[in-house]
UniProtKB/TrEMBL annotation, chain A:
This is ABC3 transporter permease protein domain-containing protein. InterPro entries: ABC3_permease_C, MacB_PCD, Macrolide_Exporter_MacB. It is found in: Cell membrane. Residues 21-233, 433-611 form the MacB-like periplasmic core domain. PANTHER family: ABC-TYPE MACROLIDE FAMILY EXPORT SYSTEM PERMEASE COMPONENT 2, MEMBRANE COMPONENT OF TRANSPORTER-RELATED. The keyword Nucleotidyltransferase does not apply. Keywords: Cell membrane, Membrane, Transmembrane, Transmembrane helix. It is a multi-pass membrane protein. GO terms for cellular component: plasma membrane. The chain crosses the membrane at residues 21-43, 291-313, 338-365, 385-409, 430-454, 683-707, 735-755, 767-789. The keyword Amino-acid biosynthesis does not apply. Residues 297-412, 685-795 form the ABC3 transporter permease C-terminal domain. One of its GO terms (molecular function) is transmembrane transporter activity.
UniProtKB/TrEMBL annotation, chain B:
This is ABC transporter domain-containing protein. One of its GO terms (molecular function) is ATP binding. Belongs to the ABC transporter superfamily. Macrolide exporter (TC 3.A.1.122) family. It comes from Mucilaginibacter polytrichastri. PANTHER family: ABC TRANSPORTER ATP-BINDING PROTEIN YTRE, IMPORT ATP-BINDING PROTEIN.
């Protein structure tokens, strides 16, 4: 009964103070919406690969290689590994290999270049949970030239999902569709539209143990201990790769290891791949746990700021409620029931805010998905945890936010209140001051964080990468042209508006990479002086077309026949090799283990270092040699009429090939590499803005109450001759002081943490003192504008009115 | 009904100790209408707060209906208060968020009266105070006189044995003030004991007896009838 009375009073009190209620509910709703979206994001990130019913038993086998000065951590492993592990270790129930590829797939007269294709062992359906709609998962990938496609792909190519038995022409080979599976969940670390039987790929039968090509996953038997298997890896590797090391490198494993090199294997749990793995040869672009922590922290910050608003505004308003408390106490209410009353009110506000937040989050989800590059859905599964979580939020936030006003207000002595002894709830609010400082400390922290992230992203965008990615058009898969590739290049070079063109798939912005071992002398492999560089086959136009700079020696020349054994190395390779003057030095590449056949290369020049990995990593050695790689044709254009030029190039392509003409721009490809960073940056900016907005909303409310509380004082001061400036500064002074304290607290902390974040980048900006200054000034300015809105209003009010009303 | 003996109350700040009540002794019999008068700061509000069990004395005895309450803790006082005493204030002290009916109903809620019974008890009181037609209005929508009638309705709805009125006409014009005094007189005639603090000699004339306080003790008692 009494409860009904509480709700009634609470509701009417909220209704009466519309501005207060709006600030409180909206502020909290805004905070909760942001929080909810982040929670959805985090839950989505944490759910990666958990759709697999055997997820806890699936592990990926990785390879770590150190040779000379180079270390490579592979996500891929040797061709025979999967089968051998299964045979040798009873704990391994099953194993599967995946190998990414790309292929032209024919649809009618069109040849579509598909990138989401993998060769897969038949066991893929036993290890991973990929439900098959049509076809038999046990046999689907047994035969060569079998392909299993996803539902969407089936509809795309056949307009139907009953397509088992039909054929797809993939890179000129007929593949029989043997199964249709459901689309792979977005929360998978790999995402393929086509799975081709591994037996269609001849190399998959290779028995080489010193290679890393296949993403290899093993399924443990129930109860098996992965640690035990990992412990047996060194011996296992010695057994299988030892002899190969002897023949190929002329080294025993002991000698190899004594030279400081190593060749190791380890396991990554399937569910750790998305957030914890960042190796060479990952099947998709993974995220990092760091972002999960950052976002969770932001969510908590925002929620905290919103709660503080609630607490501050409620206590600031306490003087208005004090009389009610007094009357209720006189009429016989106990302190306990008053506490219950205020908590009810606070929970009511939180409930309202939560409902608004749930609706808002649902409405904003599509926009958020776009921002975050996600496909999060709110469905019945989401509600299973979302509703209880919301309920807990209402109870916890309602209690936290309401407890201070509840215990504070209920302690009023009725005599004091009714006698008007309690001047107002605003003064003596040291807790409120503390909370305002904390709020703004967080806001300033977020501003500094945003500025640093923004600067770093900007730096990446504008950094001199050692090549010029602007105005470069890349025609993909030029090898489709076969022997006509060179002719195509010549034809394109003749076109007006084309400055230069080069044939090579090894581009700084592409995935194609190749490594091999080079030695400084002709004799045995000398691990101290050997390097393990990227070895890229290019043509003489490569350096010119990509706008790279030579720092010593000369570029390749088509006129010099001896250049077939010439190499251009980058500065890092020169440093690794220890050459002060590398031009005209020789490099040796063993063609067999005994070093009886050695190919000799002649260094003709040094190219300035250019970035081809993420800027998180240091530049590694690169050796460019002349070759006939026809992966892509990169074209430096010098026209403003791109569409016309592209049409002309396409015409030339169509004259030579029936394959689909695909192209991209190098700067866009570059941006794609940093898309996840840019997304994170954008999300960060959005939520920081929100946090600041919510903090300001609270400050706005507080300033309004401060002004209200001091109406009489302001009136008296005005009567005595104070002008508007004096009054505004009087009202602003207290808040500005708090914000200065907030700046002092948060700047060093933000500087330290952002400094740590930047350490992840091999190439990074410095945090300048003015970044911190700008953040502080911005916070101060925003706060001042917020406060002065209220102070000016109070200062301009007619003192006669305010004095009369007292 | 009320017997206080050697009642003392001090207010202390860091340096000064003010004596609000100085060994005050007085008695109020059942059915009496007593007015307490005196200059500002003479201790009359303090006395009313102690009589209303909103405050406790520092020394002395306070016997209410043969029960010694001077040493009661807040909960016990609140319990005794809500069943026995009704309050009328100068500034009405109605709750702005509640309607006339709900304001009057409030004491019944705190004494645990069932909802149906509450309607049965509130309505006759509203009728008697001639504010039945305003039952669903909020305090701000009423005139001062009407608000004070609501406050009196709230004070009597629990059938208290004692009504304490603190300058009940202080915020009213003379016509509304007279109405309020008539209401209090009626209540008194029906058997309710009334103790009223007032500055107004005119209002005091409605009472049976005037107790004049100065510096915390009785200086004079006038018997009116």
């Amino acid at each position: 009964m009494m409860f009904k009375n509480y709700i009634k009073t609470a509701w009417r009190s909220l209704k009466k103070n519309k501005a207060f209620t709006a600030i409180n509910v909206l502020g909290l709703a805004l905070g909760l919406t942001a929080c909810l979206l982040i929670v959805l994001y985090v839950v989505d990130e944490l759910s990666f690969d958990r759709y697999n019913t055997k997820a806890d038993r699936i592990y990926r086998v990785n390879e770590d290689l150190k040779l000379g000065n180079n270390t490579v951590n592979y996500a891929v492993a040797m061709p025979p590994l999967a089968q051998t592990l299964k045979t040798d270790f009873p704990d391994v129930e099953d194993a599967v290999r995946l190998k990414r590829t790309a292929s032209h797939v024919k649809k009618g007269t069109e040849n579509i270049l598909e990138y989401n294709i993998a060769f897969a062992d038949p066991s893929v359906f036993n290890v991973f949970t990929l439900p098959m709609i049509n076809g038999n998962p046990a046999t689907a990938l047994a035969e060569p030239n079998s392909v299993v496609i996803t539902e969407t792909t089936a509809k795309k190519y056949f307009n139907s999902i009953n397509v088992v038995g039909k054929t797809l022409l993939m890179d000129q080979a007929n593949c029989k569709v043997t199964g249709v599976i459901r689309d792979m969940p977005k929360t998978s670390h790999f995402n393929f539209d086509f799975l081709i039987s591994m037996s269609s790929w001849p190399d998959s039968k290779s028995d080489k143990w010193l290679r890393s090509d296949y993403n290899t996953y093993i399924l443990f038997r129930k109860g098996a201990d992965p640690k035990k298997l990992e412990a047996r890896f060194p011996q296992f590797l010695r057994k299988y790769s030892g002899s190969e090391m002897q023949t190929d490198l002329n080294l025993s494993v002991d000698e190899f290891e004594k030279g400081g090199s190593y060749f190791r294997m380890n396991l990554t749990p399937l569910t750790d791949i998305h957030l914890h793995a960042n190796r060479t040869g990952e099947l998709g672009s993974n995220s990092t746990m760091e972002y999960i922590y950052i976002f969770s922290a932001i969510a908590l910050f925002i929620l905290f700021i919103a709660c503080v608003n609630f607490m501050n505004l409620s206590t600031a308003r306490s003087s208005n409620r004090a009389r009610e408390v007094g009357v209720r106490k006189v009429l016989g209410s106990s302190r306990g029931s008053l506490i219950v009353q205020f908590l009810t009110e606070s929970m009511l506000v939180t409930l309202g805010a939560t409902l608004i937040a749930l609706a808002a989050a649902t409405l904003l989800l599509p926009a958020f998905n776009q921002l975050a590059g996600k496909e999060i859905l709110i469905n019945s599964h989401t509600y299973v945890w979302l509703l209880p979580v919301s309920l807990i939020i209402v109870l916890v936030i309602g209690f936290l936010a309401g407890s201070y006003p509840a215990f504070f207000l209920s302690a009023f002595q009725p005599v004091d209140v009714l006698k008007g002894k309690l001047a107002g709830g605003f003064k003596g609010g040291w807790l409120r001051s503390f909370l305002v400082v904390f709020q703004f400390a967080i806001s300033i922290f977020l501003i500094i964080g945003t500025l640093v992230i923004y600067n770093q992203l900007n730096y990446i965008q504008n950094k001199n990468l050692g090549y010029d990615r602007k105005q470069v058009l890349i025609v993909k898969k030029a090898f489709e042209l076969g022997k006509s590739a060179a002719a195509f290049k010549q034809q394109v070079k003749q076109l007006p508006g084309v400055a230069d063109a080069t044939l090579s798939g090894f581009l700084p912005t592409e995935q194609a990479r190749s490594t091999s071992i080079f030695n400084k002398d002709a004799g045995m492999l000398d691990q101290k002086n050997a390097i393990f560089p990227q070895t890229w086959a290019v043509d003489p136009d490569y350096i010119k077309t990509l706008g790279m700079k030579m720092t010593a020696g000369r570029n390749f020349s088509a006129q010099m026949s001896t250049d077939s054994s010439a190499v251009v190395i980058n500065e890092t390779a020169a440093k690794f090799l220890g050459f002060d003057n590398p031009v005209d030095k020789l490099l040796y590449q063993a063609l067999d283990g005994k070093h009886t056949k050695v190919k000799v290369y002649h260094i003709i020049g040094v190219v300035k270092d250019f970035h081809f990995n993420s800027l998180r990593e240091n530049i590694s050695p690169v050796i460019l040699r002349l070759g006939e790689d026809t992966g892509d044709l990169s074209i430096r254009v010098s026209t403003s009429n791109l569409p016309a030029l592209i049409a002309q190039i396409k015409q030339k392509w169509s004259g030579l090939s029936t394959s689909h003409f695909e192209y991209s721009f190098m700067d866009q490809d570059f941006d794609a590499t940093y898309r996840s960073e840019q997304r994170i940056g954008k999300i960060f900016i959005v939520f920081t803005t929100l946090a600041i907005l919510i903090a300001c909303l609270g400050l706005f409310g507080l300033a309004a109450y401060a002004a209200e509380q001091r109406t009489k004082e302001i009136g008296i001061r005005k009567v005595l001759g104070a002008n508007v400036t004096v009054i505004v500064s009087l009202l602003s002074k207290d808040f500005i002081k708090l914000i200065l304290i907030a700046i002092a607290i948060s700047s060093p902390l933000a500087w330290y943490l952002m400094h740590k974040w930047l350490q992840d980048f091999a190439y990074r900006v410095n945090i300048h003192w003015y970044t911190v200054a700008v953040a502080g000034m911005a916070a101060m300015l925003i706060a001042f504008i917020t406060i002065s809105f209220q102070s000016i209003k109070a200062a301009l009010a007619n003192p006669v009115k305010s004095l009369k009303s007292e | 009904m009320i017997k206080i003996t050697d009642l003392e109350k001090f207010y202390r700040t860091e340096e000064v100790e003010t004596i609000a009540l100085n060994k005050l002794t007085m008695e109020v019999r059942k059915g009496e209408f007593v007015a307490i008068m005196g200059p500002s700061g003479c201790g009359k509000s303090t006395l009313l707060n102690i009589l209303g069990m909103l405050d406790d004395p520092d020394a002395g005895s306070y016997v209410f209906n043969d029960i010694e309450v001077a040493h009661f803790n807040e909960r016990k006082r609140a319990d005794l208060r809500k069943h026995n005493i009704g309050f009328v204030f100068q500034s009405f002290n109605l709750i702005d968020e509640l309607t006339v009916f709900e304001n009057v109903e409030l004491p019944l809620i705190y004494t645990g009266v069932a909802a149906a019974d509450r309607v049965k008890r509130v309505e006759p009181v509203l009728d008697k105070m001639q504010i039945m037609h305003r039952r669903n209005h909020y305090p701000q929508q009423l005139s001062g006189g009407q608000q004070q009638r609501v406050a009196i309705a709230r004070a009597v709805v629990n059938n208290p044995k004692l009504i304490l009125a603190d300058e009940p006409t202080g915020n009213l014009d003379s016509s509304n003030g007279n109405d309020v005094m008539e209401l209090l007189t009626d209540l008194n005639e029906q058997g309710t004991t009334i103790i009223m603090v007032t500055h107004s000699e005119h209002d005091a004339r409605y009472s049976h007896r005037i107790i004049r306080l100065l510096d915390g003790h009785t200086v004079m008692e006038n018997i009116m009838i």
